[in-house]
Amino acid sequence: MPDKPHSTRTPNSLDEFGVISEFFTDKGAHPNAWPSQGVGDDCAFLDIGDKRIAVTTDMMALGTHFFDNADPYTVGRKSLAVNLSDLAAAGAVPKAFFLSISFPSIDEKWLKAYSKGLMEESFRYGCPLRGGDTVKAPVIDGKPSKTTISITALGELPAGKGLTRSGARPGDDIWVSGTPGDAFAALGDIWGYWKCAPSDYRYFKSRMDKPTARVALGTGLLNLASSACDISDGLIGDLQHILDRSGVSAVLHWKDFPLSEAMRNMPEDVRRRCVLSGGDDYELLFTASAEQSARILELSQRLSVPVTRIGEITGAGESLLIDDGEGGVLSPQPSFNHFTNEVV
């Protein structure tokens, strides 16, 4: 994450997801390849014999996803956690990951702290490092390039199973885990958009630096949820992916959204900005038939992971509505999207 973002709007209509669709979606026939599905989801699924493997990859860079002076220990933890969160959204059990990293010079202190955070996260979820690559970053116009990290994580699924963004149906409930918006509250304080009380800022900052991948919840939802994704770019933006892939729409109820105690101390407009559009939470957003609600709440209690029903899926052709609970409709700011957004 840069010190403060500037607009990087491209001169054409392509954005992050448009680029993927236009240039990096393989639509060819490959008769000798492993059968696969899931392009456009948090994970791709590969069917290998009687096994189904979930695969995800994320690239992160200092100055884009992290501040230049970010604690390397938390960079290590988070760089793996965001990939494990993708596996959680698919309902997969983490099994291994691969790391490629480019840095301008060998800084033993930085690398030791980064490795410590990375390996602790790896051990926490039983997901070992199995390979990768290291590259020296180039020097451009006399300035060294910034550290860039790419992790590919693999998880295991039962044959034929796996949660995607495309299964939501009209009448399904919409659920979210935890308290979204907390991570962006810290970012807004750092950027000077608002000011948090010191104790609240420490809580928000910990949520930004050390997200929790909801792996146990994801695997528990495998036979309960109809669709799922994790919240990386912002709740509304990530929900829209589910709606687009499923060919449906939704109604959300702002008054039902879960708020942390720290978030309750923030002004109402800040709450809405953070919770609806903020991103970087890595909570799970999922849909399920209303008849599954008791089992979902039982799972939540058993895992001590709070989940909250925040809306319902409606039919195709309708607009996404956010009921403010007072007879009005909210119009949130757009969620994050590489190449298009100026965060405000």
TrEMBL record:
Residues the record lists as binding Mg(2+) 3: 42, 86, 230
Domain PurM-like C-terminal stretches: 169-318
Residue numbers binding Mg(2+) 4: 42, 56, 86
Keyword Protein biosynthesis (UniProt): no
Gene3D superfamilies per the UniProt record, alphabetical: PurM-like C-terminal domain, PurM-like, N-terminal domain
Other known facts: Reaction mechanism of ThiL seems to utilize a direct, inline transfer of the gamma-phosphate of ATP to TMP rather than a phosphorylated enzyme intermediate.
Protein's name according to its UniProt entry: Thiamine-monophosphate kinase
Name of the encoding gene: thiL
Annotated family: Belongs to the thiamine-monophosphate kinase family.
Record flagged with keyword tRNA processing: no
Binding annotation for Mg(2+) 2: 58, 86
